[in-house]
Amino acid sequence: MTRDIIEINGFIVLIEYASSDTKEVEICGFAEDVVGIAFYGSGEVEMNIRCGDQVSTYQNTKGVALSFFASKGSTFEHTISPNNPMQSICIVSTLGNLEKLPQHEQEFFQTYLKSLVNPNAEIVGGPGFYMNHDMQNAVSKIYSSTYTENMRQMFLRSQVTELLAHFFAQVSLPERPTLNDEDRLKIHQANEIMLENIASPPSLAELSRQIGLNSNKLKKNFKEVFGMPVFKHLQNERLIRAHALLKEANLGIQEVAWQVGYESISSFSNAFMKKFGFRPSEIKT
Fold first, then answer.
1. SS3 for 208?
2. pLDDT surpassing 60 at residue 285
3. Burial of 34 by CB count in 10 Å (0-12 exposed, 13-18 middle, 19+ buried)?
4. Residue 115: how many CB atoms within 10 A of its CB?
């Protein structure tokens, strides 16, 4: 596992990446009571928070944001699925540090994370949901950044602050009816089908047939779960995979473009530039 640890106004931020061809377990803990918000950019992860005999388990898939309170001495155990790299950004603060924030920032926590700031148990779960496009984009930029040393620290601080702002904007929205478990599972099946066929995905009609939802319901539910339309999400996933291939695999730009479904290098390069702020050639130099 690789881990960046930075501090922002008393918040401790852990930016973690783990990849293995076998199941991997990573454990960490905190010496004080903490309120935390975690964002999962990728991976299929089980997280157990343990304190004495109490255990809270979270099944975290790509795109999940969650919040929690954990008392002093709690441990955090990530079980990471093989061949499914984990990207996790966890932002934690002690209760004492929250009292030092500017009044308007304290109010965010008191209003929207009240059960965490005033806990009634050793471990308390707070709001959790699938990240909207703004949050997913902020996470993506953190993991695709090529900055180093002091410039990287400055950049990470700006992106973490953006993530928190988007998180509180999301939890402040009025509650909406949520999908039932069966329909949510179908949407995740649709996503897996697209990712497994990322270069040549099925049409919307074929995707609807495979998961057993009509096209209108697929489009509506997909946007509710992933925060963006089906094929905008697909383009986002193509570019994220392309970035990883360019960075980690010994492949040329043309081959990477083909592998993620772009026939034109210029179209690929322009889309890549729009998402990441630099062209594919800048990774390969």
1. helix
2. no
3. buried
4. 15
For residue 23, CA distances in Å to 43, 45, 80 come to: 12, 10, 6
Confidence (pTM) = 0.74
Residue 210: predicted pLDDT: 95
Give the Å distances, CA to CA, from 38 to 52, 92, 140, 256: 22, 8, 14, 31
Query: DSSP label at 145?
Result: -
Q: What is the per-residue pLDDT across 125-169, written as a single tens digit (0 to 9) for each?
A: 999 888 877 888 888 888 888 788 889 889 988 999 999 999 999
Residue 230, burial from CB neighbour count under 10 angstroms (0-12, 13-18, 19+): buried
Task: Give the sign of the dihedral formed by CA 256, CA 262, CA 264, CA 268.
Answer: negative
Which residues fall within 8 angstroms of residue 123, CB to CB, at 6 or more apart? 49, 51, 54, 55, 56, 68, 69, 70, 71, 74
Contacts of residue 75, Cβ cutoff 8 Å, sequence gap at least 6: 27, 28, 29, 49, 50, 51
**Per-residue b/e over 158-193, b at no fewer than 16 CB within 10 Å?**
ebbbbbbebbbebbeeeeeeeeeeebeebbbebbee
Cβ–Cβ under 8 Å, residues 146 and 247 = no
Alpha-carbon distance of 109 to 37, in angstroms, equals 11
Rounded distance between C-alpha atoms, residue 29 and residue 56, angstroms: 14
Maximum Cα–Cα distance across the chain = 57
Region 212-219: mean pLDDT is: 93
- The domains of the chain, with CATH numbers, are 2-171 (2.60.120.10), 181-284 (1.10.10.60)
Phi-psi region of 21 (alpha: psi -120 to 50; beta: other; left: phi over 0): alpha
